[in-house]
Each structure stands twice: as structure tokens, then as C-alpha cells.
């Protein structure tokens, strides 16, 4: 197996700095042409190696599937931009919420690239005018008003003096963003503001103040924002009253429409992966298996399919999706644990009956075979080897 090292000067571009973000948004990773096995084998070896490197780079950082969630986010963002165009307070915004594997940051990146593409149509010379159509920052842990403003200043490349207060930095940031005609500001990791420390409250107030000072539309992203402490109290009421929440949740296999969408997403991934030996619709009969492996998480599905495809391209065997090959790819701990427990509804039932004090019923649910399966799954997840 070949190790794909990052070439000097070709590493992924950071999102949290102005120059690198705009470079990332304006120069997407190109999608390589899809070749047949015969066409690939006919290439000289240097061209084959180059094609493999291009495919791996695309799968690693360029592949984006336009899901219904992204389409809805675009619609809500357009509405918020229009509503904010002439307002000087109470600006509307959009909030991406979901657990840590739902692809919130991936969605935010797709939206920023779409905004920049649309902005370029209306303002073709925006780079010469030193505009910054989209901004991306992450809320640091235990954020205060000053540390949050410093994150914005660092993104913009502004000088920060030791004596600068949060208000001083806010003035600098607002002036810079106004000059840059910024349209969308993505604030990721917003769940870091769900605490109750005075500094966190101050940071929340600073964000609200920025929203009033700028015509830019804010796009918040974070883990379970609607169910965390972020929506509690006066600050939470202001947030919930101004922002439209777009939940990014797992697909439901029992819902016919979502099941249809899930199959369509898999088909799109299969086409984009461009494996040389994989016949069309190879993954169609594996749709339910893929759902079980990933618990319906789009982020986990993306990692499973692109990771497996990269392994096949880097290896020496046939480039074809099979369940056996997919089984060899290990996902994150949470996904693997859920997959190991997929056939164990009796465990939950047993706990419920114990809570009701029913000793007889609780002894009849867990079979020896199931117990052995649990133990084997635990050993696999912790790296132990069966005797």
C-alpha cells in the first residue's frame, strides 16, 4: 500500500485566515475525469500516478454532495440576506444545529463557496476591490468578548495591541468588515457559548452587537444548539427570535421519502468516487447495510465511502465497492459502537423492565448469543484480540 504524503506547498488551506479562506473558496479541488479501466491502463505510468493523486485529493477535500439539507440552507440564507438588506438592527440569521457527525462545517463551507460564486457574478472585480464576501471564525473554548474579537481580528490580519479592550477590537473589526463589504459571517463551534460564565455571556453580547453593527448575515453552526443552554434566558430568546434553525439530523430508514433520498445520496457518492472497476449501481443493494453502518449520518457515510475509495485507489486490488471491503474500513468510535449494538433492542427492554421491578421478564431478553456478540464488539472497539 502506498502512503500518500502531502506535497510541499500543497497542504489544505485553512479556513480561519482571510487569504487562505478566499483561496479555498475560489479555487475548489478539481474533479478528475472518470476513466474506464481500459483507459486508465493505457496511460503511461506517470499519468496514472498523477490521476490517482488527483482522485485522492478530490475525495479527501473536494467532494461535496448537494443534499436537500444544503438546498434548504441556501433558501434560508437567501431569505435572511434579503431581510437584512436595509435593516440597521434585529438582523435575521441562520443556525445549523445537529450532533458532531452531521456535517455542519461541511455544509457551511458549501454555503460560503456558493455565496462567493454568486457574489462574483454581481461583482466580478471584488478581489481587486479588496472585498471579503464570506468570513469564517470558530468560537474558542471559554470565550470572552476580547478573545472572540481577537479571533475576528486574526482572521482579518488586524494588529492587536496588548492594551486593546474588547470594545477597541470590535471597532477595528467592524470598520474592516464594512470596508470589505462582507455578506456572510460563519461562526462555527457556537456551542462553546452555552456555558454560564461571565466571559461567555460577554462573548454572546459581542456577537449580538456585531450583528447590529454590520449588514452582513450571520450563519451560526454548532452542536445541538436548540437543546443546549444557549437558548435559555434573555440572550437565548433574542437568538431564537432572530435565527432560523436548520437541523441536520440522521436520515430515517423507516421514512419512505428519506429512504429515497438516502439512496440518491449513495448513488451520487458512487458516481463521484470514480472507481475503475465499480459497475454502475454497485452500492444500490448495499443501501440498508450502509445505513446500519452509519446510523443514517451523512458525515459518517461520506467518511466510509471516500475513505474506502481512497484505500482502493492506493492499494493493488480491484477498485470496486463490496461489503467485504467496506467492512474493513473502521469508522469513528460512536458509529462503530452503534453498528455493534444495532440488533440489541432487548437490552433496552431489559433495562426498562428492571426499572419497573419485573425480575421475571428481565431474565428472558438477553440470550447467550447476544451476550457473546456484545463482548466481541467491545473487544473489537478496544483493540483486543479474540483468543
TrEMBL record:
Family matches, as InterPro entries: P-loop_NTPase, TniB
Positions with biased composition (Polar residues): 359-370
Pfam families hit by this protein: TniB
Tree of life domain: Bacteria
Residue numbers spanned by region Disordered: 348-371
UniProt-recorded name of the protein: TniB family NTP-binding protein
Amino acid at each position: 500500500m502506498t502512503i500518500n504524503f502531502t506535497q510541499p506547498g500543497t497542504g489544505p488551506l485553512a479556513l480561519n485566515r482571510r487569504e487562505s479562506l478566499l483561496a479555498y473558496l475560489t479555487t475548489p479541488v478539481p474533479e478528475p475525469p472518470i476513466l474506464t479501466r481500459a483507459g486508465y491502463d493505457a496511460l503511461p505510468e506517470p499519468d496514472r500516478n498523477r490521476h490517482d493523486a488527483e482522485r485522492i485529493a478530490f475525495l479527501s477535500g473536494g467532494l461535496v454532495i448537494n443534499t436537500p439539507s444544503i438546498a434548504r440552507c441556501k433558501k434560508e440564507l437567501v431569505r435572511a440576506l434579503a431581510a437584512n438588506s436595509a435593516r440597521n438592527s434585529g438582523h435575521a440569521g441562520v443556525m445549523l444545529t445537529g450532533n458532531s457527525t452531521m456535517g455542519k462545517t461541511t455544509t457551511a463551507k458549501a454555503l460560503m463557496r456558493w455565496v462567493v460564486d454568486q457574489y462574483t457574478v454581481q461583482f466580478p472585480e471584488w478581489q481587486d476591490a479588496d472585498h471579503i464576501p464570506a468570513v469564517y471564525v470558530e468560537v474558542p473554548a471559554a470565550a470572552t468578548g476580547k478573545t472572540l474579537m481577537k479571533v475576528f481580528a486574526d482572521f482579518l490580519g488586524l494588529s492587536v495591541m496588548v492594551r486593546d479592550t474588547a470594545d477597541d477590537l470590535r471597532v477595528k473589526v467592524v470598520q474592516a468588515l464594512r470596508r470589505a463589504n462582507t455578506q456572510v459571517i460563519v461562526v462555527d463551534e457556537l456551542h462553546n457559548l452555552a456555558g454560564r460564565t461571565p466571559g461567555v455571556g460577554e462573548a454572546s453580547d459581542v456577537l449580538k452587537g456585531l450583528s447590529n453593527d454590520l449588514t452582513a448575515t450571520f450563519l451560526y453552526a454548532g452542536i445541538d444548539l436548540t437543546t443546549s443552554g444557549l437558548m435559555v434566558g434573555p440572550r437565548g430568546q433574542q437568538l431564537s427570535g432572530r435565527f432560523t434553525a436548520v437541523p441536520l439530523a440522521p436520515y430515517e430508514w423507516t421514512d419512505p421519502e428519506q429512504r429515497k433520498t438516502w439512496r440518491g445520496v449513495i448513488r451520487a457518492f458512487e458516481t463521484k468516487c470514480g472507481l475503475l472497476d465499480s459497475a454502475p449501481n454497485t452500492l444500490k443493494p448495499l443501501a440498508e447495510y450502509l445505513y446500519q453502518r452509519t446510523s443514517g449520518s451523512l458525515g459518517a457515510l461520506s467518511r466510509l465511502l471516500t475513505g474506502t475509495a481512497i484505500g482502493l485507489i492506493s492499494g493493488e486490488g480491484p477498485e470496486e465497492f463490496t461489503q467485504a471491503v467496506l467492512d474493513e474500513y473502521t469508522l469513528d468510535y460512536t458509529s462503530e459502537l452503534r453498528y455493534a449494538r444495532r440488533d440489541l433492542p432487548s437490552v433496552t427492554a431489559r433495562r426498562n423492565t428492571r426499572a419497573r421491578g419485573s425480575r421475571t421478564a428481565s431474565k428472558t431478553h438477553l440470550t447467550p448469543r447476544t451476550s457473546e456478540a456484545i463482548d466481541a464488539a467491545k473487544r473489537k472497539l478496544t483493540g483486543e484480540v479474540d483468543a
